[in-house]
Write a structure and sequence with these properties.
882 residues, 6-stranded mixed beta sheet, 7-stranded mixed beta sheet, alpha+beta
């Protein structure tokens, strides 16, 4: 046992906590971390490295520790890849050491993780002395303040204030634009929008690369001192100090006062360095070199104080820049991101009093910038200057004669050494980003917290470059690992991919519909009667739509309300057609292209007012299209006065289709003139339908006379039942998505995602007529002028008339054994045509009408005639009820 008889600011000696580690029964004290309890019980090299299988021990005291990874099980919940330095000890923990990888245990995620969205005037990140001073000053100034601290306790007192919220056990994990920061608390993810952000995240002590620097017992000097002060744990009995900074001597004094013997001090500023270690699975001696002599010093603890790296991951995520400061041997903040201030050790300030003064001044300034006058606690004492020799930028110690760099570890999580860095530079790599990917240094879950600057220092030496000319690699969110279960919150299990149903779903179920999944929606696929299979049911439904009247639930189509003075201009910039010329109470079919000119989505858009459109999208693309709208509005055209709102769930849509659809609508809406002259194709009418206020549009996706009746979702079922009742005298038939596909394919109408695959332009799909002539620009227009987009041999949409029904996806060739020249996109049996048919993409297809292509299947080759994609009613007469 190495628990000290006295001291320990965070432990309760009267409360013993039992746990198991790798199957062994152990005990600690309330307030311990798992790491402090293990050290107190004498555990040293409990871990093995992921690639080299070398013994590893505890190196740090927080998120900087690269080695002490564990899987923790408690109350039936198992979480992998936690750091022993950050796991709080509670009764009954079952802990297993990990070698760089854990395992997910099904159904063991914590059950009550949640999210919150909050606003504040000042967000202070870090509960050290500088952060607490900043929070106190800002709150005293009247600002709404959130103080987030990663550990369970603050380092200093914070003056209580009504508008101050202190979040402990809370790590800031992501920094984004406009003061948006994500905080990860134990069971809650906080989305914070702050007017000002004060970063007081402290600094991480740096190690040095020397032979055997990964051996258990090699520890950051500041971490060893903190274990003594916080947990009354001595990490060893006899120590050697290896320092390039005054802080190492202060840490050694802490350990010496606790009874740890200091066997030797190697200060690199005096020319003495540790050049190697000895021992098996734990440290037994340190090798010190000075003045050409090398000697071995027995010890079980090696304190390394290689300097300090300000913790600026969030600063760089927020687009703050860094500069190398030679005097402090560290990368420090340079150009500040908007709304951000950095104080204390994160700002390179090593003197505690100066850090407190910085924090208080920043807090007062942040309160004033948020519109609050400085409060009575805004005055701070003048900063005091630090003393002592400047640190030495020491990154690696030359190996002993006859030895290489293989044992000089840079990244202990990735088992990456100085030898790997030599290999990368020898291969011609110069950029830190390229070196990172070649060596994998900094790619583990600590993102190079202890290895990043160390690697840059060695790299600069190998390249003969100044330290300021190499820059740290990009820090990405999350700054510290976050459990997926916390990111998901309550969106787990069935809630992670919810089943969406329309207001009419219960009717479909009651009438025997077979459903298919379209995105997250359950849509009726077909309605079998008796012993009908799908083919028989679909042929019956198709006949009803072509010869009488049929009805379909079209509520799942995406619907986006686009409104504002610039709504027409916005749609014109995105879609290929001209929406400014569209009259009120009229509809227009629109196609949307990506920037490379490929078809992205389509739909019918209703202009319901001069400054308002209802844009419909495909069912599966509704969210993607809204996201596309917002991306262009927010990043490219913020000057446009437009608001986009998803209203998909707000409307239920009943499509009434077929030659008798006019009769059904006339019975439902006797005051509505449904004549062809007064209710034209693509007209919109607001009317009372079955006693309900509805928006009726004459739209057809079948080629037949058809109407779409739109009502608020809560009236959707009532409207459906009213249409059903009005249509019964005419033999009305409900139909599903499979029949919809057949009907539209007979007319050559494309389905985005079926006839398209991200490589199809409007011209390929036969939709060149949808591009407004003389239109100045739209997203994707320039790409249509690329040589590749104008090739005559591009795959183009055609119909095929095969000898038998073909499987979708079947490949097309012009001769047996020839290259593939296209594929079948849709394949159906047609009641109207009396035969099977297909839609396909075929190279140079529009010039091949009447030709024969071959379709090689597993056991035979099928012949198919190429035809125009509009196989049914090419004149379009039936659309008007002829």
């Amino acid at each position: 046992m190495t628990r000290l008889a006295s001291g320990g600011s965070r432990i309760d000696r009267g409360a013993t906590v039992r746990f198991t580690f790798d199957g062994r029964e152990m005990g600690g004290l309330r307030g311990d971390t798992l790491a402090s309890a293990l050290l107190a019980d004498g555990v040293r090299g409990a871990w093995r490295s992921i690639y080299h299988g070398r013994p590893r021990g505890i190196v740090g005291i927080g998120p900087e520790d690269p080695c002490a990874l564990v899987q923790v099980t408690h109350d039936g919940i198992s979480e992998p890849m936690l750091r022993a330095t950050e796991v709080e000890l509670v009764e009954g923990l079952a802990v297993a050491s990990l070698a760089g990888r854990g395992r997910l245990v099904p159904d063991s995620a914590p059950p009550h993780r949640d999210k919150r969205h909050v606003h504040c005037d000042v967000l202070v990140i870090g509960g050290g002395a500088a952060g607490c001073a900043a929070a106190s000053a800002a709150a005293a100034g009247g600002a709404r303040v959130i103080l987030a601290e990663r550990t369970p306790v603050l380092a200093a007192e914070v003056a209580p204030a009504e508008e101050l919220q202190v979040l402990t056990r809370t790590a800031a994990v992501g920094a984004y634009d406009d003061g948006y920061v994500v905080l990860a608390q134990r069971d809650r993810l906080w989305h914070v929008r702050a007017r000002r952000v004060i970063l007081a995240s402290g600094a991480v002590e740096r190690t040095v690369a020397f032979a055997g620097n990964d051996r258990p017992g090699v520890m950051l000097a500041s971490a060893a001192a903190a274990y003594v002060e916080r947990y009354a744990v001595a990490p060893g009995s006899t120590a050697v100090l290896f320092a390039a900074d005054d802080s190492g001597h202060a840490a050694a004094e802490v350990l010496e006062r606790a009874g740890v013997g200091i066997a030797a001090v190697a200060d690199a500023r005096d020319g003495a360095v540790v050049c190697g270690t000895e021992g098996g699975d734990a440290l037994s001696a340190a090798r010190i070199r000075s003045g050409g002599d090398v000697w071995s010093v027995p010890c079980d603890l090696l304190l390394v104080a290689g300097g300090w790296n300000p913790s600026l991951e969030l600063w760089t995520q927020a687009q703050g820049t860094l500069r190398w400061d030679e005097a402090r041997a560290a990368f420090l903040p340079d150009e500040a991101p908007d709304r951000w201030t950095v104080v204390g050790a994160a700002n390179g300030t090593r003197d505690p009093a100066t850090g407190v003064a910085e924090g208080a001044a920043a807090g007062a300034a942040a309160a004033e910038a948020s519109g609050f006058p400085a409060g009575p606690n805004g005055h701070v004492p003048p900063a005091t200057a630090g003393t002592g020799r400047p640190p030495l930028a020491l990154f690696a110690v030359e190996p002993e004669e006859g030895e290489g760099w293989d044992g000089h570890y840079l990244d202990l999580q990735r088992d990456a050494t100085v030898a790997d860095l030599h290999q990368a530079v020898g291969a011609g790599l110069r950029s830190p980003e390229h070196v990172k990917r070649f060596t994998t240094i900094g790619t583990a879950n600590d993102q190079g917290r202890t290895s990043g600057v160390l690697t840059l220092g060695v790299l600069a030496g190998l390249l003969g470059a100044e330290m300021g000319s190499v820059h740290p690699t990009t820090h990405r969110p999350p700054a510290v690992p976050v459990p997926f279960s916390l990111l998901a919150g309550r969106d787990r299990g069935v809630l992670s991919d919810p089943v969406r149903t329309t207001a009419i779903h219960s009717w479909h179920e009651a009438h025997g519909a077979i459903f298919e999944d379209v995105g997250q929606w359950k849509r009726p696929w077909y309605y079998p009667r008796g012993d009908e299979d799908m083919d028989a049911a679909v042929l019956r439904e198709c006949r009803a739509a072509r010869e009488g009247v049929a009805m379909m639930d079209a509520s799942t189509l995406g619907k986006i309300d686009v409104q504002g003075p610039d709504a027409a201009e916005f749609l014109n910039r995105l879609y290929t057609g001209d929406f400014a010329k569209l009259g009120t109470d009229r509809c227009k079919y629109g196609i949307l292209c990506t920037a490379d000119g490929m078809l992205f989505d389509d739909g019918v858009h209703m202009r319901v007012a001069d400054d308002r459109y209802l844009v419909t999208t495909t069912t599966g693309n509704a969210a993607a299209v809204l996201d596309w709208f917002e991306e262009w509005l927010q990043t490219e055209w913020p000057e446009l006065r437009v608001h986009c709102t998803s209203v998909t769930e707000q409307w239920a849509t009943v499509a009434v289709v077929g030659p008798r659809s006019r009769d059904v609508l006339a019975a439902l809406a006797p005051e509505l003139d449904v004549s062809a002259e007064r209710f034209r194709f693509m007209d919109i009418r607001d009317a009372d339908v079955a006693g309900m206020r509805a928006r009726v549009a004459r739209i057809s996706f079948s080629g037949e006379l058809a109407y779409e009746i739109n009502v608020p979702a809560w009236e959707g079922l009532a409207m459906w039942e009213a249409v059903w009742a009005a249509g019964e005298p005419h033999g009305i038939t409900p139909y599903g998505t499979e029949t919809m596909h057949v009907l539209r394919a007979e007319k050559g109408y494309v389905i985005v995602g079926q006839e398209t695959d991200g490589t199809v332009t409007p011209q390929d799909a036969g939709l060149a007529w949808m591009i407004a002539k003389g239109k100045h620009d739209f997203v994707g227009k320039r790409s249509h002028r690329r040589i590749d987009a104008m090739r005559e041999d591009r795959k183009q949409l055609v119909a095929l008339l095969p000898e038998e029904r073909l499987p979708e996806g079947a490949q097309l060739v012009l001769e047996e054994g020839g290259p593939m020249v296209g594929h079948v996109t849709s394949s159906y049996d047609s009641a109207a045509l009396g035969r099977p048919f297909c839609l396909a993409l075929l190279a140079g297809g529009r010039g091949r009408n009447g030709e024969t292509v071959l379709v090689p299947l597993i056991d035979r080759v099928v012949r198919a005639e190429v035809a125009d994609p509009v196989l049914y009613d090419p004149e379009g007469a039936r659309r008007d009820g002829a």
